[in-house]
Every structure is written in C-alpha cells, then in structure tokens.
Specification:
Elements: H1 7-20, H2 29-42, H3 48-57, H4 61-69, H5 80-97, E1 104-109, H6 115-128, H7 130-136, E2 137-143, H8 146-154, E3 156-158, H9 167-173, E4 174-177, E5 180-183, H10 185-188, E6 191-195, E7 207-212, H11 221-234, E8 235-243, E9 256-260, E10 265-268, H12 290-303, E11 307-312, E12 317-320, H13 322-328, H14 352-361, E13 365-372, E14 380-390, E15 396-405, H15 407-506, E16 510-515, E17 520-523, H16 525-531, H17 535-538, H18 556-563, E18 572-577, E19 583-593, E20 602-609
Parallel strand pairs: 1-2, 1-7, 2-6, 7-8
Antiparallel strand pairs: 3-5, 4-5, 8-10, 9-10, 11-12, 11-15, 13-14, 14-15, 16-17, 16-20, 18-19, 19-20
Helix pairs in contact: 1-3, 2-4, 6-7
C-alpha cells in the first residue's frame, strides 16, 4: 500500500502545479491517490515516478488525468427535498427582505456541466417571473474543468439527464432538439460560465445565493478552512450558502451558522457591532444608619465565603475573615502584626510587589490561578484580587486582598477543554468519514454511470451481433438452398454420366474422346478390349503418346480437320495390332465435339473393326 506522504506522489503534484498551474496539493490524499492510480492503471504504469516521466513525455496525458481527478457528477434538482425547501421557504424569505428591484447574484462554485446553475435559474424564474428574472438575476457558474465548462455553455442535455426535471418545468424552460434538450436562450444569457479555482483565485463578491455542493469534501482541513473564509467574504450578510450532504461546517461556526442543518443551508455570521461606551454611570446612594451598619459590615466580611484580608497603609494586618483564617492558618493574635512577617505574604505567592503596584497605580490587580499546596491530594487554585482602599480624601487607607477559590472552575475548564477537543476530534472524524463516504458514493455513482454507458454499448453491440446473426442465418439458408440445388445438379450430372457411360459401354465400337490439346477425356470398354489399356491409364494422356497398336500418325489430319469443323469426311482405314498382337483392319472416323454451333471443344474418335 502506498503511503499518503509518498514523496514521489508529492513531486507529481508539484509538477502539475508548476507546469500546468493546477494546485492539487490541498486535495485529500486518499481520494486523490485513488483517481491518479486509476489513470496509472490505464497507462500500464506502477509508480508515481514513472507516471511523472510519462506526463513529461506525453503532454496530452494531462487532459486525461485531469478528467479522471475531477469527478463531474451532478444532475438537475439533485437532492430534491433540499431544492424544494430552497424554493418554497429560504429564497422567498430572502427576496421579501430585499428592496424591490434589487439585483440578485448567484454563484455556483464547482458547477461541473452546469445542471446546478440551470436548476437555480429555473427556481428563481419560477419565484420572480421570467421578465423580472432577466432584469435582476445574474448567475455566475465556475469550475476548474474547461471541458465540463464547454458542455455547460452549450446548455444541451440528453434524455437521461432530464429525468429529474419535472415535466412542467421541462416544457417551460427547455426546447427539444432531436434526442437532446436545450435550455431557453433568453434565460441562458443570465448564466455566466467561467473558470475559477477555489484554492487560488479570488471569489465572486456580493453573493446572495452561493451553491457549493459536494466540492469542499475533496479538500483537506487546511484548504477547506481557507476556502470557507473566502466563501464568507464573498457573501452578503443575508445571503444563503447551500452545501452538499457531506458538508456540515461544524468546525467553522464562527463564519457560518446553520439555517437548516439537515438540508445543509447556512447563513453568514454577521460581524458584531462595535461596543458603545456610556458617558457616565449613575448611582443612588441610600441613607444608611451607620451606627448599625459598621457591625453588619464586619460580620458580613467575616462570614464571606471568599477569603479576605485587610492590610493597612503601614502594612499591618488589620482584618482576616473566617475563610482566610481557615485557609492560611491565621490566629486572632496575628491581627496587628506586620503583614511582611506572616506566611501568607509569600506563600502561595509573593504579594508585596503586587500590593505596591496596586497602591501605586490605584487600581485593582489580579493574580490568576495561583497554585497552593495543602498537603497530599489535589492542589488548590486561587484567583487573588488586590484592591487599594482610600478614605475619600485621596489618602490610601490600605488594601483588601480577596482569595477566590477557582479550583472547581479550573477542573471544569480542563474537563471542558478535553471534552471540546474530543468532541472536535469526533466531529472532524465524523465529517471526514461522511466526506469519504460521499466521495465513495460519488465515485460509485460515476462507476455506475460508466457501467450504464458500457451496458448501453454492450446492448448496442448485442443488437449488431443479433443483426449479423440474422444475416448469417439468411446467408446460411441461401447456401443451403444452393447446396440442395448443387446436389440435385450433381445427381443429374452423375445420372447423365452414368447414362453416357452406359451408352459408351453398350456400343460395339471403340470410342475415344480427346480435347483440343488431344488429351484423352473418355475411353470406353470396347477401347479397353481392343487395345488392352484401362480407362484410368488412358484418360489424361496425350492420344499420340499412347502405347497401343493403333498407328496414330495418320490420324493427325482427320483430328485437326474435325477441330476446325471440317470433320465428318470418309473414315480412315488402318492396319493395326490388337491387344493379343493380331493384325486387324480398323476403320477410324473423327467427329467434332460441339454444342449448339459453338467451336468444337474436342473430337470423338470412333474405331470399328471388321
């Protein structure tokens, strides 16, 4: 298995970025590697280094690689429930809140072949009316794939792509052109297509509806954060962000808040207004009975759950409440002692410098989360507030020290941080898992579409094979008919040959048939009996070369005369030797072998004995 931090793969991505200007380094390595591996298999390569060399040598390979990486899976009204909510609730509310006649800007980021942008156009045209749509709406559709943008600009789609478009919308917004459907030309002018890389290029600004569906899931967390920040910048405060099912923006709550998390609708988080400072604070002083209030104040301070010490201007401890006594081990005898001589002055923290700072600056000073050990067990954490006290005439009376026990809050804060980290990790893992699943679903859908295409091609091939089979069957039937006819004719020829052979055998005259080259083609039984040569020995031999008792030289002229059509004269009488060696007188007649007045194809030689 190849590691996701393979240096050869990173070198390949850097080459694509530096040579072609496409930066895939922000994409998720797992899904990106799957797409590149698929292209490498098609190119019969096994390593990223070899594929880099292949790209450098074959410039046209980049187009095939780019088309493989960019999974352009989209459709009209994808996730119909979400589009219904957008058209019935979210968009009408946004349009009602806007000034009449104000422009509406839409950005479809990662538009692929354009179905999403044209879906938004149909929804807005239905809400606003066609005339108002043409006057007010601009839809910007962007992608990094130039081939997909070229298809989107043509705005024509096959029957299969139109299945998800309701029939009434199809009739109003599309024109049928053969087997394809074209989006209305007058509305098409409001949809502007262009190339835009979400990672590198500047975003479209002042957007009211931003469609970025199933695009963020291909990027890693760092790149996603950068893109989401750009999307936040691009949108108006009351705009709507429409994401895909795999994208939840759980880690970007400071930029977008959900409108409908189930359907993935979000709104930009508005910037908080600057705080306003009031000119003065008013207080109403009540009339206090100071004779009874002094005792109340003393007892109240003593009973306070916050450990409190009062130190005079001459650095003498003048007051310690019950909580401070218990916390620092103070005794009644410690009241009136110099504060510098007490252990609380330097444990758990050196306080003299902080007291001096608070008195010098005449403002409260805080010391946060001071750790104080109380023996075995968990330490104690204190927030110490040092507040200077004056007598109303500007002269300092001393300082008050408040020791707030924040140990439970610190523990809760630590637990909360751990829980938040665990929750964030779980959310990120969940989102990564969901995005991986969605990516896998996209790839599976792409594979299903490829298989459907392959199935259609196989169906077409099957139909062609079926047609060829029928043609072959027809040809076979014709050949069978011809074969039957040929068999009948062969039988007729065989019967004719047998009939002719019977005739030749029945004649008492020796018959020899030769062609125009005087090669023997027929030799009957009487010839065998007369000369002692079998038919298979004679047929195929030149007549003048046969070793028989017949003198053939005198026959040259009669045979040639017969071949020229002058045959049929008087027979030639010759003295010959039969197969027994006896002298016999034979009468030889040469008759031309011709059919229907054509030039003779041979000669029939008739030999009769006395």
């Amino acid at each position: 298995m190849v590691s996701e931090d393979d240096p050869d793969f990173e070198a390949l991505l850097e080459f694509l970025r530096d040579s072609r200007g496409f930066d895939f380094t922000g994409y998720k390595r797992s899904s990106l590697m799957r797409r590149v591996d698929r292209r490498m298999q098609q190119a019969s390569l096994t390593s990223y280094a070899d594929y880099l060399d292949h790209l450098q040598l074959h410039q046209d390979e980049f187009t095939a690689l780019f088309n493989t990486i960019c999974i352009n899976v989209t459709s009209f009204f994808r996730d119909a429930d979400a589009w219904a909510h957008l058209s019935e609730d979210a968009l009408p509310a946004m349009l009602r809140a806007r000034n009449p006649g104000a422009g509406v800007r839409v950005w479809s980021a990662g538009c692929a072949s354009g179905e999403e942008a044209y879906t938004a156009a149909m929804v807005l045209a239905e809400l606003m009316g066609v005339e108002e749509f043409r006057e007010r709406v601009k839809i910007y559709a962007t992608d990094v794939d130039e081939e997909a943008l070229a298809l989107a600009r043509h705005a024509t789609y096959p029957d299969t792509a139109m299945k998800s478009v309701p029939e009434d919308l199809r009739e109003r917004y599309f024109e049928q052109q053969g087997q394809r459907y074209a989006f209305r030309t007058d509305l098409r002018r409001s949809v502007i297509f262009g190339r835009n890389d979400l990672v590198q290029d500047a975003p479209i600004s002042r957007v009211d509806l931003l469609l970025c569906r199933n695009t963020l899931m291909y990027f890693n967390a760092e790149t996603q954060s950068r893109i989401v920040s750009r999307l936040n910048f691009a949108m108006n405060d009351d705009g709507i962000l429409f994401l895909g099912k795999a994208e939840m923006l759980l880690s970007h709550a400071e930029l977008f808040q959900p409108i409908d998390l189930k359907r993935r609708f979000f709104r930009k988080v508005p910037r908080p207004p600057a705080p306003r400072l009031s000119g003065h604070n008013g207080y109403t002083e009540a009339v206090v009975d100071y004779s009874s209030a002094i005792a109340l104040r003393g007892e109240g301070l003593a009973a306070s759950p916050v450990a409190t010490l009062l130190v005079s201007s001459d650095e003498t401890l003048v007051f310690s409440n019950h909580r401070a006594d218990l916390l620092f081990g103070l005794k009644p005898s410690d009241i009136g002692r110099p504060f510098a001589n007490l252990e609380v002055n330097y444990r758990p923290v050196e306080l003299r410098s902080y007291i001096a700072t608070a008195v010098a600056e005449n403002r409260p000073t805080w010391i946060r989360e001071v750790e104080m050990s109380r023996g075995p067990g968990e330490p104690l954490y204190l927030d110490i507030q040092i507040t200077p006290i004056d007598g109303g005439d500007g002269q300092p009376l001393g300082v008050a020290l408040f020791f707030n026990d924040v140990s439970p809050y610190r523990k809760l804060k630590g637990d909360l941080e751990v829980s938040n980290r665990q929750l964030e990790t779980a959310y990120e893992e969940l989102q990564s898992t969901v995005e991986e699943l969605e990516t896998t679903n996209e790839e599976l859908q792409s594979t299903v579409e490829e298989l459907e295409t392959t199935n259609e091609e196989l169906q077409s091939t099957n139909e062609e094979l079926e047609t060829m089979n029928e043609e072959l069957q027809s040809t076979n039937d014709e050949l069978q008919t011809i074969n039957d006819e040929l068999r009948d004719r062969t039988q007729d020829v065989h019967d004719a040959n047998a009939f002719l052979e019977a005739i030749l055998r029945s004649l008492h005259t020796a018959v020899v048939v030769v062609d125009r080259e005087l090669v023997v083609t027929a030799w009957n039984r009487q010839s065998e009996d007369l000369w002692g040569v079998r038919d298979h020995e004679a047929i195929g031999q030149h007549l003048l070369n046969l070793d028989v008792g017949l003198p053939v030289a005198p026959l040259r002229d009669p045979i040639r005369a017969a071949l020229t059509g002058d045959g049929g004269g008087e027979p030639t009488v010759l003295e010959a030797l039969n197969r027994r060696g006896r002298t016999v007188m034979v009468k030889v007649s040469c008759v031309p072998l011709a059919v229907d007045g054509q030039e003779p194809s041979g000669v029939i030689v008739l030999i009769e004995t006395d």
